[in-house]
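Lab notebook, bench 4. Still working through the backlog of constructs that have no structural model yet. Next entry is a single chain of 201 residues. Request: give me the structure tokens for it.
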Amino acid sequence: MAEGAHGLLLDAAAQDLLFREARTVEAFTGEPVTEEHLQAVYDLVKYGPTSMNQQPLRMVVLRSAQARAAVVRWMLGINKARTAAAPLTVLLAADLHFHERLPELFPAKPDAARLFEDPFVRKESARFNAALQIAYLILGIRAAGLAAAPTLGFDAEGIDKEFFGDGGHTVLTVLNIGRPAATAVPPRLPRLAYGDVVTEL
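Model written out:
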């Protein structure tokens, strides 16, 4: 593949789709988000790198009216209405027992699970690597022509008890997904410049 402008291999249209023109929106069209959409997105983003190939992210897709109503109860402020109106809502959680799959996922170190026997270490690693996976997921959703609106405006303890009663998972964000309504795309907010962020030694 030929190298594009500024050393990037992605063409300008893909850069716009994933980054420059993409937004976190507050309203969506009524077009449904299908299982096929989610499967295609996941089958792409599952290859994103994590530490020791940990894959703690778990997705609870809320399609039934009962499940949607249950999560809306735990949303705060304006997020109640936004979540109720979204075409699809997905709980993104960290599996706190992710280490049990490490012999399968990281065969180069068969005893890798022993590194996470300490519950604090395990939880910190689960949250960090699941957060990485969430970022990849948002890019995958954008690659599908959809928009993702993650929120932290919810009662995490309430959602954990409602949906993860065994204590083995902890919710990290509630993600609303859909095709953005044309009138709901906000202007681009400022970003820090390269020189504000990068220090070279």
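Notes after review: The first strand starts at residue 57 and ends at 62. The CA atoms of residues 2 and 91 lie 39 Å apart. Flag for follow-up if needed.
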